[in-house]
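Recall from the previous lesson that a structure prediction takes nothing but the amino acid sequence as input. Here we apply that procedure to Ras-related protein Rab-11A from Thanatephorus cucumeris. The sequence below is the only information supplied.
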Amino acid sequence: MGENSAYDYLFKVVLIGDSGVGKSNLLSRFTRNEYNVESKSTIGVEFATRSINVDGKTVKAQIWDTAGQERYRAITSA
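The prediction returns the following tokens.
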């Protein structure tokens, strides 16, 4: 990346899967180190980022959490 960039590598990740399997909690645990047993279903899409250091390089992850309900399937079919 450029000299002024805050990261060396950027990964874009989309979490997809059936409703109620834990996609939102996976996102929450990785980005905020939180886990909520009684989390609500995602409506549409949620988004979070986290940067980590790997071998002296800054790696930024942009993570998209999709709703598992069938009516939101169009978000992931591309």
